[in-house]
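Next up, a specimen:

>
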Amino acid sequence: MSSPSSSGNGQYDEYYKIRHSAAHVMAQAVLERFPDAKIAIGPPIKDGFYYDFDLGRDADGNLRTFTPEDLEAIEKRMRQIIAGRHPFIKRVVSAEEARALFADQPYKLELIDGLAAGGTDEYGEKVEGAVEISTYRHDTFEDLCRGPHVEHTGQIPADGFKLLQVAGAYWRGDERRPMLQRIYGTAWKNRKELEAYLRRLEEAKQRDHRKLGRELDLFSTNHEMIGGGLILWHPRGALMRHLIEEHSKRMHLEGGYQFVYTPHIGRSVLWETSGHLSFYRESMYAPIEIEGQQYYLKPMNCPFHVHIYKSDVRSYRDLPMRLAEWGTVYRFERSGTLHGLTRVRGFTQDDAHLFCAPEQMPAEIDKVLAFSLSLLRDFGFEQFAMYLSTRPPKRVGEEEKWDAAEAALLAAIQRTGLPYDIHEGDGAFYGPKIDIYVTDALERPWQLSTIQFDFNLPERFDLTYIGPDGAQHRPYMIHRALLGSIERFFGVLIEHYGGIFPVWLTPVQVQVIPITSDQNEYAHQVAARLKAAGLRVVVDDSDDRMNAKIRNAQLQKIPYMLVLGAQEMAAGTVNVRLRSGERVGAMTVEDFIARAQDDIARRVVI
């Protein structure tokens, strides 16, 4: 089974069908090897697929897990099933038929109950309207599934798939539910594509932000004492965060934004009025009791910004009002879904809310979009794609407002000349939006910026401004986050650069390396001159040999190493090496400072 991963026009591509079908074939092979196993869900995902299994417990009460030998045998059996060219056959069944078919599969029965109730699909995800219950069968295996699949198993390339790893996964991502065994696999059209992907996968492992975060001493987590999804920023990571925020804040000031700060908690009446307790309760933490009143940790900053707007009578002359905050929010995520910096429970958004008159709205959208692209380019991203999500069936706000907002968003996208797609009906109930995706060095897309209209909060909080006619009018409200979550953006940045950051962002830009202790005093004099010029410098005056000092600096991915021996000390120069291993040679301190400052100004990677 899988949830749709389709393009904006609702069509499923060939890779989706291959991976979806490979997941079913894998499940058949597993059940043949482990007849008592219970099956959960098995969706195609980006570049691959997975399937969750409950293998039960052994005689000692320990969870059974897959071994490397199991994966090898499962792969072999999958190729035999593929060779059988078994057709995939769909049938629609009633809830009663489905329960009878999966009577010995408790996870399927739970999913069927959700389907029958009409509020969730076969993966437990919320959907609108009635849900058809269907299955797909090939050979001896049948599963709840809405498809689509390839026509028969022979269309799954036997040399284009591979099982990659086994991981534990809680049922529905809930640590209170059973722990399942998840097999991850990948599938492509041919062996050449598979091998290219495996090479990218190996590179991705080396760039994993969790691995590099430890090696470069940037951040950590402590599940036991602090809790999962809560990030500890170490000095070097915190410095990089400061540099990211400082640059962005300077651009915000230049763009006419005003900074605000808001509390971390608010009374329940705030979240009732905003609608969060009705529509977003499952992602909020339990209330805090204070003097008989219930308070909630904020999942979003917007209701507070609304109240700043509402704190005074606003005139059309005050608009547009652009309120920005690097606000930390808290959202409940199941422990099974947490992932380093990219899926956390507490994070800081570069959040802003724009309040403008209707006639100002198109220009504001243009400015926000141009601002977002400019900011992302400053951090080294050059490939973009945009998605416009339009009005869903259930929505608030007048149709003419939706018309104007969608037209402004689309026109702004088209003026950029960048590729885009339209996701019809995929907008929030309170307004359409643009999502901006960047492509990293490994050709992976990441959703970062969002520009979101909101027709809901101005109504709920009765926002107004006095127009030129002296009458009260309702302003437009636009949410936007450009980098998105600072934590997630930092994780993406680490992986994009593989830890080899542009000089301007690198925590330590220069390491001064005296060859012997005789040069220690000169090394500190050089470091002092570099620091006075604004460079971030450390001196390695340890007892290690020179080659070890250079190797340590390279492992820490420090851009410049200045090696100082007796000759350099006598001449008042520095011997420059780059982290790439390139030897630049002797330079005066002034020349080196000029070179480094130029590299910083141009935001280059060396």
